[in-house]
Amino acid sequence: MKEKTTKEKTDDGSIASRPRELYTGGERPIDPEDLVMASGRDVTPERVERAKRLIEEKGWAAVERYLP
């Protein structure tokens, strides 16, 4: 799917495009791999499995402890 963008002029006169909709992260599902990477660890099958359980248990709050 192609991302919808908006074109606008910058201060220096060039044209830049930006996404029409900005996402903060809470609008999309959390992948266990993302949670492992957010914790600063290497992705391993054991850590992914632990992250799956944590997401099922705590939902979005599982990743909020790693991200500001």
From TrEMBL:
Basic and acidic residues composition-biased segments: 1-12
Query: What segment(s) does the record annotate as region Disordered?
Result: 1-33
Q: What is this protein called?
A: Uncharacterized protein
